[in-house]
Every structure is written in C-alpha cells, then in structure tokens.
Design goal:
Elements: H1 7-25, E1 30-31, H2 32-39, H3 43-55, E2 59-68, E3 74-80, E4 86-93, E5 96-103, E6 108-115, H4 121-139, E7 146-153, E8 156-158, E9 163-165, H5 178-186, E10 190-194, H6 195-207, E11 214-219, E12 223-229, E13 232-233, E14 248-250, E15 256-258, H7 259-263, H8 265-272, H9 277-285, H10 289-313, E16 317-322, H11 328-339, E17 350-354, H12 357-381
Parallel strand pairs: 4-7, 7-10, 11-16, 16-17
Antiparallel strand pairs: 1-3, 2-3, 4-5, 5-6, 8-9, 11-12, 12-13, 14-15
Helix pairs in contact: 1-12, 2-3, 6-12, 10-11
Length: about 400
C-alpha cells in the first residue's frame, strides 16, 4: 500500500494545483472539464479545488460564456478575478523610463513615460518615485492592492544590495537605494531584473518554448544576451547570463577587440554612415553592396558567437532581437550560411528574430509578477511567509 498523504502534504498539493489553475487561466478562460484534462485530475478533484478558489475570490464564473454542449449539458467557464491585486513594471529604456500598472489578468490599468532628458541625472529617480507613488495611490484599493514592483534595466544586478551595477545608461541606479526605499515606502517586494533576461522570459512565454533551450542575442547600442537552459534562465551571481558584448574576439585583421565593437547596431550604422533603422531598411530594399558586405562580416561574428555558446549549452533555438530583425530575411540566410562552416549539429539550430524587445520585457514582467503575486496571496491566506524571489 502507498503511504497516505498527511494534512500538510495535501495542503501543499492543493496549493500547487491552484498555481497550475492560475497559470492556465492567465492566458484564457477555461471550463472545469478543460482544466481537468490539461492537469490530469478527476472532475471531482478539480471541482473541490475550484470551490476553494471561488470562495477565496481568486476566480469567478464567466456567465457570458455559458454554452450548451452536444448532450445539452451546461458548460461553464472560469476566469481569473483581475482585481486580486496589481503589478507595477518599471522599464529603463533608452532616454525614457516607462511605468506600467497591470491587474492580475495582465490588463493595463495605467501607463506613463518619463523622459530622462528633461531632468538632471540626480533628479530622475526622485521624480520617478513621486510619479510611481501617485499612480499607485490613484488606482490602489483595499480589494486591489499593489502586490509587487519589477524594475528592468541593462547591466548586472547586485543581489545582496538589490541595486544595478554597470548600468551604462543609468548611472544613478548604481549607488541608489531606490528599490529599498520603494520597498519600505510601499511595503511590497521590489525585484530588479536584467532587461535581456526579462525579454527572454517574455519570448519563452510568447512562443511556448518551455521545452527548448534557447539563446537570445540583442543587438542594440550594445550587445546583450541571455540563456534559457533546462527550464530556467541562467542569471548567475550577477543577475544576468552575460553581457556578450564585453567578450573578447578578433576582427578580420586579427586585432583583439570586443563583440560589441563588431556587432552592435551603432557600429553597423556608423560603418554604413546612416542614422537609424529606416535608413537600414532603405539600403536593404536597394540591395546596397555596402550593406551586403557589412552583413557578411556581422553574420560571421554572429555565427561564431552562436557556435561558441552552442558548445556549452546545447540549445535548439536562437532568437536575435533588435533593429536587425527588420531585415531578417537577408541577414538570417547569411547567418545560416556562416553556421555551415562549423560542425553539422549547428544546422539543427532554429533561428528566429524579434523586433520589439520592449514588448517581450513587458510580457516577461507581467508573467513573473502575476505568478509571484498569486503565490503571495496563497501564502497570506494560509498564514505562510511571503515569497521573496522570482
């Protein structure tokens, strides 16, 4: 006979099932029979869990979706209660700071854009904090409290001090107690995430590649990257997989340099003597020989980078993000040709492109924030400790 589950074991299993239901309902409304099938549970077991979630106000029936099945039985759908809480996402991008407030279904409640060019460096964070608190006070209620704040920026994350390090775009973050002050003022967890790690999380969520080891390379003013391996993103001790752009390599003449100096979009734009992506697209349409030569060089360095990481992490999927995605048809074929110079296993790599890195960061932040918020709600309800890591 198998061992009988204790009360504690049953509670843990029930909470895990609740989390699974929450994750299913984040993306779509489902009937109890649909959820039972997806989770491998009996209808009776699921009904008991759903009653507990209904009583806790985590979910409710979506009456507009009550239909008749082929046997005349009513099929009723469940939907998440969006007002269980709110999630705030702060994204440090280029010369702006974007702040978004979401409900627990991931729908946008409020949004603001703060231009950093309009303030002195020392004024940016105090002004941002004032705007964030004002937004929260406007939309927060007792029934819909703020659950957590996720902040994304380039650079390392000092996990012990909870500050960003080597964030070239936002030096003010390096010695700031910004996250700690927010935590103490608002009494919610504040999580700092490397921007490309967050984008990769969003990409995995968007493509549903949870079973596929994936390498992401971002080509922007700098070169960033992240790695998803065996079901999780590799953050290391510094909150990111690695700033690939800082890696040493050699140019066509054998001179020691960095990946960033050869592969960043600002380097490509400088070499082509253009000022941005629109001019890049125009060169692509004109079949510019100068662009062709530049892309041959860039694709060679990209193939070498992909090959080197492949030897360590054995991924099946590569996503290259940034402006280069606007000319992906031309660039992708060149990278694939360059990969043929290496071992045959590399031919099995699936190459994908994403133009909108900020949208991926937003998707990643929402997914992480929703999951952590629901875990916190369950812990509070059971008198447990609040989760502090995502």
């Amino acid at each position: 006979m198998g061992e009988q589950m204790t009360g504690s074991d049953q509670r843990v299993a029930r909470e895990k099932n609740m989390e699974m239901i929450f994750n299913l309902l984040k993306d779509q409304d489902l009937s109890s029979s649909d959820m039972a099938t997806k989770m491998g549970l009996s209808k009776t077991a699921l009904t008991k869990i759903m009653k507990e979630m209904l009583d806790a106000n985590y979910v409710f029936y979506k009456e507009t979706n009550v239909i008749q099945d082929g046997r005349g039985r009513r099929k009723q759908y469940f939907t998440l209660n969006p007002d269980m809480g709110m999630i705030m996402f702060v994204n440090f991008i280029h010369q702006n700071i974007e702040v978004s407030l979401y409900d627990m279904k991931g729908s946008n409640i409020a949004h603001l854009l703060l231009s950093t060019t309009m303030h002195q460096q020392e004024e940016v964070l105090p002004e941002l904090m004032k705007d964030m608190i004002e937004m929260i006070n406007t939309y927060q209620t007792i029934q819909r409290p703020l659950m957590n704040i996720i902040i994304a920026a380039p650079g390392k994350v000092d996990k012990k001090k909870n500050v960003f390090k080597q964030s070239n775009m936002y030096k003010a973050l390096e010695s700031s107690e910004f996250a700690q002050t927010l935590h103490e003022t608002l009494n919610v967890p504040v999580y700092l995430k490397n921007d490309i790690n967050l984008a990769l999380h969003g990409y995995i969520k968007k493509t549903n590649h949870v079973e596929k080891n994936t390498l992401m390379i971002y080509l922007g003013d700098s070169v960033g990257g992240a790695i998803y391996s065996n079901g999780s993103i590799l953050e290391g001790d510094h909150g990111y997989a690695g700033e690939f752009g800082l890696m040493k390599t050699f140019d066509e003449h054998g001179n020691l340099t960095t990946v960033e100096s050869l592969c960043a979009m600002k380097s490509l734009y400088h070499h082509l003597e253009i000022d941005g992506v629109e001019a890049l697209i125009n060169l692509d349409r004109k079949d510019s020989p100068v662009l062709e030569q530049s892309l041959l060089s860039l694709s060679s360095h990209m193939a070498q980078l992909i090959h080197n990481f492949y030897q360590i992490f054995d991924f099946a999927h590569v996503c290259i993000a940034g402006d280069i995605a606007h000319i992906k048809k031309r660039f992708s074929s060149k990278v694939q040709d360059q990969l043929k110079r290496y071992d045959l296993e590399n031919l099995e790599i699936n190459l994908d492109f994403e133009e909108h890195i900020e949208a991926l960061m937003m998707l990643g932040a929402k997914d992480l924030g929703q999951t952590e918020s629901f875990q916190s709600l369950i812990s509070k309800r059971k008198g447990g400790l609040k989760h502090e890591h995502i």
